Amino acid sequence: MFRVAIVTFAGERLGYGTGHVMECLRLVDEWRHRDAGIEFRVFLNAFGPALDRVRAAGLPVEIYTDDTYGSAPLATVPTRIAAYDPRLTIVDLPTILDTEIDRLVPQIRPLAVLLDNDQNQFFPVDVLVNYNINQDADFYAG
Predict the structure, then answer these.
(1) Could you tell me which of 69, 66, 51, 123 has the C-alpha nearest to residue 91?
(2) Which residues contact 92 (CB under 8 A, 6 or more apart)?
(3) What number of other Cβ atoms are within 10 A of residue 51's Cβ?
(4) How far apart are CA 117 and CA 39, in angstroms?
(5) What are phi and psi of 96, to 5 degrees?
(6) Are the CB atoms for 62 and 43 separated by under 8 Å?
(7) Contact 112/90 with Cβ under 8 angstroms?
(8) Nearest one of 24, 23, 25, 70 to 45, comparing CA atoms
(9) Residues forming beta bridges with residue 5, ordered by sequence position
(10) Structure-derived torsion over alpha carbons of residues 116, 117, 121, 122, reported in degrees to the nearest 10
(11) The whole model's pTM is what?
(12) For the segment 16-74, what is each residue's pLDDT rounded down to a tens digit?
């Protein structure tokens, strides 16, 4: 069984809503279509509408924090990921949690980051998926 952990974030602050969760669910849909042997688990903050979306997609979910905007909301994530023992962890977090991605990077491998803003390209991760369709290709050439 190939296990994939998905760490994401949802909330109403600054209008983020469930966009990051929906991006992840789209990837899950694609992988499920291609390979039924992949197991997914979503690690998410306690935001009701996003939890409802994940559960409606038939995915198991772990709530990593009830305090959405507190200090170090992803503090328990590395331990939770290790207990799940995934072959790959995908992180999709908004710009406001750049510091949190930086904390996760040395602790989780292999790690893929979905690009949320231009800064995220500078994290030393194993895979970087560019969802920023508004940036010109030359910006990412390096």
Answers:
(1) 123
(2) 6, 7, 8, 9, 20, 23, 24, 113, 114, 116
(3) 18
(4) 28
(5) -65, -15
(6) yes
(7) yes
(8) 70
(9) 41, 89
(10) -120
(11) 0.87
(12) 678 889 989 988 998 998 888 999 999 999 999 999 999 999 999 999 998 766 788 89
DSSP assignment of the chain equals -EEEEEEE--BSGGG-BTHHHHHHHHHHHHHHHH-TTEEEEEEEES-HHHHHHHHHTT--EEEEES-TTSSSTTTTHHHHHHHH--SEEEEE--GGGHHHHHHHTTT-SSEEEEE-SGGGGGS--SEEEE--TTS-GGGG--
- Which residue, among 14, 125, 6, has the nearest Cα to 68 in the 3D structure? 14
pLDDT tens digits, one per residue of 72-108: 889 999 999 999 999 999 999 887 788 888 888 899 9
How many residues in the chain? Answer: 142
